[in-house]
Amino acid sequence: MLESKVPRESIYLATKLSTTNLDEGAAYDTLQAELDGFWPAAYADLCYLHFPSDDSLPSWRALERLHDEGRCRQLGLSNFGQAQIEELVRQARVKPAALQIQFSVYEPCSPAFLRWLRGQGIAVVAAASLNPNATCNLNPMQDPHVVAIASKHGRTTAQVLLRWLLQQNVAVLPRSSSTEHIRQNSQLDFTLSDGEVAVLGALSTLLQSRPGFLRPDGASDLFGVAS
Length: 227
Ligand SMILES: NC(=O)c1ccc[n+]([C@@H]2O[C@H](COP(=O)([O-])OP(=O)(O)OC[C@H]3O[C@@H](n4cnc5c(N)ncnc54)[C@H](OP(=O)(O)O)[C@@H]3O)[C@@H](O)[C@H]2O)c1
Fold this sequence. Notes:
Blueprint: E1 14-17, H1 24-38, E2 44-49, H2 57-68, E3 72-78, H3 82-91, E4 98-102, H4 111-120, E5 123-127, H5 144-153, H6 157-166, E6 171-172, H7 179-185, H8 194-208
Parallel strand pairs: 1-2, 2-3, 3-4, 4-5, 5-6
Helix pairs in contact: 1-2, 5-6
The chain binds NADP nicotinamide-adenine-dinucleotide phosphate.
């Protein structure tokens, strides 16, 4: 990044404190060392607490100190559930700006949780949305429903899966080592119909439901698998 001609302000740098159950001093030192590892006096636009722990407050206090010092512009959480966020927010001085969670057609976030996060002003960042190994052995980019929708729009299945998230006001974080894929993943200027959004939102019911048992919570039984 330093060697490129891209100005720092044009880059959004996010990092995570991944070690759990540290005391405040150790958490501060760990994240500070990580930031120093980028380059001297580097700042991150967003620093996440990667996982909840028995008591996440000491780590959060460390993030708040780095926020005060301008080294973490915004703070975020990752893999926290609603109760864990509520507990932390009750004691936090700096509120979380974002929640990063695994979120894909096979592992969607519950609509109620999404609504709650929106009400709290916490942005949702979806991770592992394309990864075939994230939840099961199916590759969402080869799912026939996704393939059909992609071919109707003349787009790739990856673009459809990412666009589906954007239409739920969710930010996307696709990882790619391919220039062509990175280019594709940034071209999401098309619109899925409400019906297409609903079909994609119901795919997880095909994996998780059985007659008389509709899962995941809040899903609609569009395919009639539970009835
Ligand atoms: N909060 C958490 O606990 C959590 C959990 C999982 C992941 N994450 C974060 O989310 C990021 C992404 O998640 P992930 O690593 O699971 O991967 P992902 O972004 O869901 O999927 C990455 C895979 O998709 C392929 N891909 C990307 N764009 C594509 C395209 N347009 N067409 C075809 N294939 C495409 C990539 O291959 P190519 O390289 O060939 O493009 C790569 O194999 C990670 O870097 C990590 O930071 C966070």
